[in-house]
Amino acid sequence: MDSQSQSHGHIVMLPFMAHGHLIPFLALARRIRHQTPFVVTLAATPLNLQYLRSIISPYDADSRIHLHELPFRSSEHGLPPDTENTENLPINQIVALCHSSVSLAAPVERLISDITTEEGRPPLCVISDVVFGWSTDVARRLGTKSIAFTTCGAYGTMAYVSLWLHLPHRSTDAEEFSVPGFPERCRFHRSDLHRIIREADTTDQWSKFFQVQLKLSLASDGWLCNSVEEIEPLGLDLLRKYLKLPVWAVGPLVPSDLLQKSSPISPDSTLRSIQKRTGKALGVSLEKCLDFLNSHGPNSVLYISFGSQNTIGPGQMMQLAIGLESSGKPFIWVVRPPLGFDIKGEFRPEWLPPGFEDRMTRSKQGLLVWNWAPQLEILSHGSTGAFLSHCGWNSIVESLSQGVPIVGWPMGAEQAYNVKMMVEEMGVCVELTRGLESQIGAEAVKRVIELVMEEEGKGGEMKRRAYAAMRQMREAVKEGSDDDRGSSVKAMDDFVRTILGEPAKDTSSSSS
Ligand code: UDP
């Protein structure tokens, strides 16, 4: 440990084993490093650590972010060899991966003890994923504070936690029901729930993991949230009242150049730097993407992507293609093999209408990107007008931070709750369909694209609201003296006071 950690303090961070969690954890580590004098140790299993190492820049490596390997053998948990991440894992094995994470308690305990011995005092706190509730006990036993970090939004987190802990849909036959912690006007519908929670009954493996781990996280000293006070007032208020803990909204956790006034497509947005950031090979050159976007007018292009690991059904893929073509609107579509085909397999033309890709290329209406696109660069380009998304929280934050409204097609996790919040509370989203099994027709695709792209009417209103959210997100990370500081910067100050054991200032951002 260096002398800096001796004098200022140390924070240990424990991300869940999924890219959608590792990325915001690293972003949070960078934010902490930027705003505080503390040393951060990110601890993960060997392959996840390898991924973090591949996307961490030399700037991070030289600074106060350390990486620590937690030993893990997937075969001991009934998982295929070298399985340490949800990526490409069938859903029945994801639950086994979740349970396997409890085995990390012993190596985490050793890590905290070693830091304590070396520095003569325990770390200031352990920041762990909300689903790593086991770490709350470890932290307490070793004399450090335990902080949970939710990589989701506040409303989505609140819904996820309350639905898992109470399973309210199991005690009614009604299609619509109220959810503990939510006001009556926010009733949920059975179809908002993914099959695994719809069928959960407390004895299944999913309930056994989430009910235990989330309950343990309720006993932590506070929660950090990748959200912004001004964009999620309801979600944050509900979460604070439910948890009765401080909740610090320190988002948006996106690369800082995305929050500058001008376009973040800077000269150093090269292929190498994008691949470095995401750890993925791009399915298109950045130049080709920019040429396509530059050849279309402001706010005219629809960007389509289903996140880092999702795909859609073969029939849905066909209808989406027909609907896109008949809308006549320009689009960039990240294409993956549809459900039922090898996710790592080759592209097959029969997944799309005959001659589709050729026609789209010749007419310059569409650009198909195989598997992985430079999402941040696309969303931040002035020609991108809307985002058809599965509504993972990272994608939402990235889109709204650029003022881009959303067409929702939620797949799982808390994505349908995110859509509900964005439709009912923020007015920045319209839902197209949900899940892999829905019978989506090309006509519906065409209608929704036309709606979201219109300059006036509902589409125009969604755009105005997305712009307002963008301004609020940028204000939230504004640094300056006292009153000038944005809400997320102030929330981080308050979090620091709490882990140092100093009295909290009276800020709304953390009040429980
Ligand atoms: N992403 C990307 N290019 C792609 C698809 C995804 O850069 O073609 C990135 C995207 O910018 C986001 C993350 O992958 O940061 C997806 O996270 P999200 O929470 O939206 O969804 P998840 O993959 O966790 O379901």
UniProtKB/TrEMBL annotation:
<dbReference type="InterPro" id="IPR058980">
    <property type="entry name" value="Glyco_transf_N"/>
</dbReference>
<dbReference type="InterPro" id="IPR035595">
    <property type="entry name" value="UDP_glycos_trans_CS"/>
</dbReference>
<dbReference type="Pfam" id="PF00201">
    <property type="entry name" value="UDPGT"/>
</dbReference>
<keyword id="KW-0328">Glycosyltransferase</keyword>
<protein>
    <recommendedName>
        <fullName>Glycosyltransferase</fullName>
        <ecNumber>2.4.1.-</ecNumber>
    </recommendedName>
</protein>
<comment type="similarity">
    <text>Belongs to the UDP-glycosyltransferase family.</text>
</comment>
<dbReference type="Pfam" id="PF26168">
    <property type="entry name" value="Glyco_transf_N"/>
</dbReference>
<feature type="domain" description="Glycosyltransferase N-terminal">
    <location>
        <begin position="11"/>
        <end position="255"/>
    </location>
</feature>
<dbReference type="InterPro" id="IPR002213">
    <property type="entry name" value="UDP_glucos_trans"/>
</dbReference>
<dbReference type="GO" id="GO:0016757">
    <property type="term" value="F:glycosyltransferase activity"/>
</dbReference>
<keyword id="KW-0808">Transferase</keyword>
